[in-house]
């Protein structure tokens, strides 16, 4: 994970994720018993050893307990739970050293569609580590994607649950491979008109797919995110100006053809609608 996305170094994404998850219930994961999320926490915590480990996502909940949210695509349950035990020790040690507190920790593991069953406990004598499994193999990613796509393309606002589901779509069952689904989902997120929601979703997808996403594609997405709103608006205005210039050119061509071709043929050749050509003919008294 050393080459993954560090949200200490990505302040925009970290802030966006914090806003996305703040005050969210975790019902979309089937986690009905947990308190709402208070805030997203930095997910890197140094140990006495020289290396540095980090969980996928770390939350502070409303009751001041900690939620450790992990994404896995394998069934190495023993190795993974040993990893979570290490994370839990580092979290407990950090809070106790800084605040003299022992905070309760909840461990939730979201398994990608490849995993169809999961062990939720590792017993080692007096030591027991437990987790809650969320199996995304039980979700139809294509159906969820198309339902949300229809709302986005119709400029309808997404509910909190739909926003969370869109983030997880690339990890659900799909007829497409994972990288293709990641790209389809991020490109769909770019169509969201509300800019904060747009960035929330993209940040969430990058976090959820950090272990699986193609690094070159990540670079492209990060470059896109770096574009300021002003630059994006300028690019959009430039595209609109080009389209308007093309439209005016088509109109001039249509005017010149009105004396020699029928209206439907002019529409076919210029890309204008029959109604637009007919209006031009009226204006010119043809």
UniProtKB/TrEMBL annotation:
Q: Which domain of life is it from?
A: Bacteria
Protein's recorded name:
Uncharacterized protein
- The organism encoding this protein is Saccharococcus thermophilus
């Amino acid at each position: 994970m050393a080459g993954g996305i560090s949200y200490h170094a990505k302040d925009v994404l970290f802030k966006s994720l914090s806003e996305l998850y703040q005050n969210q219930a975790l019902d979309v994961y089937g986690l009905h018993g947990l308190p709402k999320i208070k805030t997203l926490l930095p997910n890197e915590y140094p140990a006495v050893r020289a290396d540095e480990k980090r969980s996928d996502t770390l939350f502070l909940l409303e009751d001041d307990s900690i939620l450790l949210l992990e994404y896995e695509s394998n069934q190495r349950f023993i190795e993974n739970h040993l990893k979570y035990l290490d994370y839990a020790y580092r979290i407990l040690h950090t809070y106790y050293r800084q605040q003299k507190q022992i905070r309760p920790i909840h461990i939730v593991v979201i398994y990608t569609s490849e995993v169809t069953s999961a062990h939720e406990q590792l017993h080692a004598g007096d030591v027991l580590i437990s987790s809650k499994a969320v199996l995304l193999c039980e979700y139809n990613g294509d159906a969820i994607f198309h339902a949300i796509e229809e709302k986005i393309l119709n400029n309808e606002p997404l509910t909190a649950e739909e926003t969370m589901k869109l983030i997880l779509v690339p990890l659900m069952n799909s007829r497409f491979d994972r990288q293709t689904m990641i790209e389809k989902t991020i490109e769909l997120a770019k169509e969201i008109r509300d800019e904060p929601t747009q960035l929330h979703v993209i940040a969430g997808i990058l976090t959820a797919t950090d272990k699986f996403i193609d690094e070159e594609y990540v670079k492209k997405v990060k470059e896109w995110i770096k574009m300021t709103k002003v630059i994006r608006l300028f690019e959009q205005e430039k595209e609109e100006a080009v389209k308007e210039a093309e439209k005016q050119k088509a109109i001039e061509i249509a005017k010149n053809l009105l004396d020699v071709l029928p209206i439907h043929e002019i529409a076919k050749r210029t890309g204008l609608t029959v109604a637009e050509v007919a209006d031009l003919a009226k204006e010119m008294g043809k």
